[in-house]
Design goal:
Blueprint lengths: L4 H15 L3 E5 L3 H4 L2 H6 L4 E3 L4 H13 L3 E7 H4 L4 H10 L5 E5 L17 H6 L5 E4 L3 H13 L4 E4 L21 E4 L4 E5 L2 H14 L5 E5 L2 E3 L3 H11 L2 E8 L4 H11 L6 E6 L9 H7 L4 H15 L1
Parallel strand pairs: 1-2, 1-3, 3-4, 4-6, 5-6, 8-9, 8-11, 11-12
Antiparallel strand pairs: 5-10, 7-9
């Protein structure tokens, strides 16, 4: 049975954090939702509930980092990358302190709370900050690795997490590396470059398209920054068409990062994008919202077909 991304994160934070006394965890009064409370139960002396004060919390994390600690900062992604942005920019990006921002309930996963709680611009915002690394968890195994990697890597970092259960993609012994994507399914006609929930949705789309004779490569680009630029270029040249898929707004996220690489390397192929198109999403169940905004397997398949028509 697959585990919710937030549960995998909380368990990994407790397991890895308990082993390293430098790890401290801060939360903005939502620790039962972010699951940072799991760490708090194991290491109460290193857990700090600062209340609903996201900017202060991020600044406090900078103080901990300056004192040699590894602070994990927890709240909903939309608030962490807005109210928490100024101190993240100053102390993480500019000063280079190893602040680890864990954005819970990324994308549309806080589905029923609606547009005030949806996070559709967080990857774009954090990707623009110098020195910050940006990762998007695609399943529970990867979410746990992101915690371990954040402890081991002294860079400031943004981890985009989710409230929900994603289908398991990886085995427990899978290895990951920063800046290195994963080809999960090979194909010759087009490549879907995806992150987060959209990886499993893309794999389902590939299965359906195979029945139509379309051979689709599916790549997990969980490391949005640093990006696996070599793999992006190789997929474009080998399959001749690129589709990016992300649970995020159209502008500035994974799709923007991929376009930047292909433009810079002068690789010209038909491209399509699966993303939220310049709007705030409605309230509704997570599954309904995915369908409504064409983020599900059917939506990906439609964009693949449209992109292949340009190729032909």
């Amino acid at each position: 049975m697959a585990k919710a991304i937030r549960d995998a994160y909380g368990e990994a934070l407790a397991a890895y954090g308990a082993q390293d006394p430098r790890v401290v965890v801060l939360d903005a009064d939502v620790s039962c939702s972010t699951k940072s409370a799991v760490f708090g139960a194991v290491c109460p002396e290193r857990f700090f509930n600062v209340g609903i004060a996201e900017a202060n919390m991020t600044a406090m994390a900078a103080g901990f980092a300056a004192a040699g600690k590894i602070p994990f900062v927890n709240t909903f992604a939309v608030f962490l990358t807005s109210m928490g942005l100024a101190p993240a920019r100053l102390y993480g990006s500019y000063a280079g302190l190893p602040i680890k921002l864990a954005g819970a309930y990324g994308g549309l996963s806080d589905a029923l709370d609606g547009p005030s709680h949806h996070s559709l611009e967080d990857v774009a915002v954090m990707r623009t900050l110098p020195n910050f690394k940006v990762f998007v968890a695609s399943d529970e195994v990867q979410a746990a690795w992101l915690v371990k990697n954040a402890i081991e890597d002294a860079a400031p970092m943004y981890l985009r997490l989710s409230r929900d259960v994603f289908p398991r993609i990886y085995s427990q012994d899978e290895s990951f590396r920063e800046g290195e994507g994963k080809i999960l399914r090979d194909g010759a006609d087009a490549s879907v470059l995806a992150c987060g929930l959209m990886v499993s949705n893309a794999l389902r789309a590939a299965e359906e398209l195979a029945k139509e004779g379309i051979s689709l490569r599916v790549v997990d680009l969980f490391s949005v920054k640093p990006l696996d630029e070599e793999l992006v270029v190789r997929c474009a040249r080998e399959t001749g068409a690129i589709i990016t898929a992300e649970e995020h707004g159209l502008y500035g996220g994974l799709g923007g990062a991929v376009c930047e690489v292909l433009c810079r390397e002068a690789v010209c192929v038909p491209m399509g994008a699966v993303a939220i198109r310049d709007t705030h999403a409605e309230c509704g169940s997570y599954q309904r919202l995915q369908k409504e905004y064409s983020l599900d397997a059917d939506g990906i398949a439609r964009v693949v077909r449209d992109t292949l028509r340009k190729k032909r």
